[in-house]
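Dear colleagues,

I hope this message finds you well. In preparation for our joint manuscript, I am sending the Amidase (Dictyobacter formicarum) sequence together with its predicted structure, so that both groups work from identical material. I would be grateful if you could confirm receipt.
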Amino acid sequence: MLPLTAPLPLTTTAAELRSGQRDLLTYIHAICDRIDALEPQIQALLPEPGRRERLLMEATRLQRRFPYPEQRPPLYGVLLGVKDIFRADGFPTQAGSQLPTGLFEGPEASCVSRLREAGALVLGKTITAEFASDEPGATRNPHHLEHTPGGSSSGSAAAVAAGFCPLALGTQTMGSVIRPAAFCGVVGFKPTYGRIATDGLILYSASVDTIGMFTQDVAGIAAVAPLLCTDWQETAVVTHPPVLAVPEGPYLAQTEPEALQSFWQQVSQLEKAGYTIKRVAAFNTIQGIKEQSRYLTSAELAQVHAHWFATYESLYRPRTVEKIRSGQQVSPEQLAQARAGRAVLRAEMEALMRQESFDLWICPAAIGPAPAGIASTGATVMNSPWSYAGMPALSLPAGKAKNGLPLGLQVVAPAMADEQLLAWAEPLAEALMEDYHV
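The corresponding structure tokens are as follows:
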């Protein structure tokens, strides 16, 4: 029987396809064979009759368009998973819901178009929690089928971990990129709020929704981020390691004991690798931050769904109904205060970075490994403050829990320092996980 996870690094795959070292049609057949064998267990993708035939036809067109290796675009033939809240030409958008798909029709998301222009072929839509909220889809964690892959970008993270595609798109409102990346043992990147245009999405909360991506290693993220992030600036060669800081206090105390112990082991490992790590008191008002974030996201979710919910309430699942109704109760004053709080929190966290003279925050990517069962996608509390502040975050694989499931380290930079975050990320990943493989 095939293993449920498999290595499929993006940069290696793309280089082999561009050069012709790996035949594109053979690659398509191999991936489709793997999906046929394993997808009934993992359920990362929306069903698509004739997926193989479509991909072979698109691949053949790509070959004809770019017959010579030196002409081929950077993602030539790379298979792309697209979270099912993005519009993508040729695919219906269901957003993990039972509502009529015609409600969500419109132009393709520009981020999908950009990746197609770079040579990527859309493998298919990946399963999401209903409207990227709390009601999970059917996807299971490839590392252990009885555990959640996280959410709401569940199918995207699982598809990358399973070796179905080397690249997948997701979104993060609270923790929907960083957490599933950690649970599935892959790399997840949530850039600074606003750096990737969110047109063509079924939005959850326009004030915080951020498009992110999953690959199996940092090099893959570093190859794709410049294609999608606006005003990307190539950084100079990194000549010194970053100074890191742990946000001590009530935020960190939310972590489960085993995960917290593993986190301090990761800190020790990084210190042995030569990194300077400071302990900085932060998020002393974490409960207030969570409340403001909850007001903001639930109120904006209610606004997005106002018309649909009035007509199709019976088709929504219970937790989504609860979230929308909760958002309807947020007053205009509460919403305005919650929106204003984003910039306040960002300024506070970045002021701490300047005052204490460090470059990056590090903390657990989730409160523990993926919980058992698929009825819940796990807690977002380690991610939501950074999302609320709009700061860029990265989840790096960081070993395994005692039960063998992956753990992740969350690394956070100041807003608009995405380039520097990724420049520093690969050495950090190597220091954390010399012997770890997806």
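For the figure legend, we might mention the following. The first strand starts at residue 79 and ends at 83. The beta strands are 79-83, 121-126, 167-172, 187-190, 210-215, 244-248, 277-281, 360-364, 393-400, 406-412.

With kind regards,
E.M.
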